[in-house]
Amino acid sequence: MPDLNTEQLIIDIPGRADSTALSLQVGAGETWGVLGPNGVGKTTLLHTLAGLRKPRKGRVKLGTAALASLGRRTIARRLGVVFQDQQDGFPATVLETALVGRHPWLSPWQMETAEDERLARQALETLGVDHLSGRLVNTLSGGERQRVAIATVLAQSPDTWLLDEPTNHLDLHHQVAVLQLLSEQARSGRSVFMCLHDLNLAARWCDHLLLLYPNGEACWGPTETMLIPSALERLYDQKLITVEADGAPVFVPVRG
Ligand SMILES: Nc1ncnc2c1ncn2[C@@H]1O[C@H](COP(=O)(O)OP(=O)(O)OP(=O)(O)O)[C@@H](O)[C@H]1O
What we know:
By secondary structure, the chain is of the alpha/beta class. It is 33% helix and 23% strand.
């Protein structure tokens, strides 16, 4: 039984014709990458999968249940979302922010317990931002904020992770550390579905890819079947050179 699936899903982008209907089955243990050029609808898709936007057609299901039939708390226990450039509504410390990840597991008006704090601190430590726990999030660097956002979802402990550009703002070491963490989450039976701009990171870390083309076409499947240089060149309107490194293809843009 896939954790997250879509049935003939068409996302709603105002003023744009219907794109290819997406019937995706994101299984437990799988890591999916969504690739496509700017403005193609990656974020809109992620928001639709999170239940934050209504599909134009079709539906999203969590397990056997239609997402639209589930309450926000149930969804929040099962789906964790890392948004692109998350803006904080009010000033909060790093620890308070990570504790928000525990809220779906509390009953209304219940205060966080010592165990919630332990889990939040542990998540901050995993992302290497525990030394910042007393700092206001709005004083952090872009990469530090991104790691706090990921730690918050780690503290939430959902079955399914949805991430919009999780490597944004991260240096190379932290990009790899975050992708490694997401792979470990998948290995422990969770599912991971993320938008990525870096084709090579996606090729290396994702076992499934969804390609969204500007003309509304889409295709998806196991990564090795999606890494066809001509298809990737058409995706980005960019000539590529393919080389092999560490037993896997690496795509380098042609200069000029
Ligand atoms: N509320 C809205 N009203 C009108 N158009 C919108 C709205 N929200 C998004 N769009 C448009 O929908 C399209 C898809 O946007 P989306 O953010 O999903 O793209 P994306 O693939 O994530 O892009 P990027 O790679 O630049 O992050 C864009 O052309 C965007 O301008």
